[in-house]
Amino acid sequence: CIRHLGPERAKLTARCAAETADDWIVGFGMGGDEMQGRQDDFAYSFDMAHEAGLHLTSHAGEWGGAASVWQAIDGLRVVRIGHGVQAIEDPALVKELVAREIVLEVCPGSNVALGVTKTLATHPIRALREAGVKVTVSTDDPPFFSTTMRQEYQSLAEAYDWTADDFRDLNATAAAAAFCDEGTRGRVLEKLELP
């Protein structure tokens, strides 16, 4: 669902997803402007999707601070967070993300372009990884930010001296966090040449 379309539209989307949940519809998430509406307003939709067995994800912690990540993991019961970088502001939250193995889908290029962080060098992705938080790298909106995964990885390699091992770890985390069946996950890991 898209947050700025409101809770009523989210309920319609959740109902549709819940009624058609199968091998093709396996997750429910919320994107859009995280400053529009409170996450609690969408809890009913997430409850409906959860009861249908769908995996849950939501944008949080890009602009809404660490509190929005807490709201997403406690109020919406998500297992993945889109962005989530402001979690670094709250050490207790970082520990909770590690304990619950909640994955952050981090979009460094987008975060710099939008001013969430001033530069890649000051981006919290490295600190989050070093704290044990599971992170993946995403492009956010490739046409809008004029980026690709190759460019995102290249930028991170240059900023942090990350090696092929770092990117294998990020890819393995992404495959493990994917909302897919084990057969598909195995094929992805095989293509990535990961165990």
What does this structure look like?
This protein has ten helices and five strands. The protein is an alpha/beta fold. The chain has one domain: TIM Barrel. Helix 3 (65-75) links the parallel strand 2 (55-60) and strand 3. Helix 1 (7-19) runs parallel beside helix 2 (43-51).
Keyword list:
TIM Barrel; 10 helices; alpha/beta; globular; 195 residues
Number of helices: 10
CATH topology type: TIM Barrel
Question: What's the CATH H-level homologous superfamily?
Answer: Metal-dependent hydrolases
- Main sheet record: 5 strands, parallel
Element string (H = helix, E = strand): HEHEHEHEHHEHHHH
pLDDT below 50 for ≥5 consecutive residues: which ranges?
none
Distance between the termini: 34 Å
Helix percentage range: 40-55%
Beta-strand portion reads 5-15%
Molecular shape: globular
Short structural description:
This protein has helices at 7-19, 43-51, 65-75, 91-100, 108-114, 125-130, 142-145, 149-160, 164-177, 182-191; strands spanning 27-30, 55-60, 80-83, 103-106, 134-137. With 195 residues, it is an alpha/beta fold.
Topology:
Layout: H1 7-19, E1 27-30, H2 43-51, E2 55-60, H3 65-75, E3 80-83, H4 91-100, E4 103-106, H5 108-114, H6 125-130, E5 134-137, H7 142-145, H8 149-160, H9 164-177, H10 182-191
Parallel strand pairs: 1-2, 2-3, 3-4, 4-5
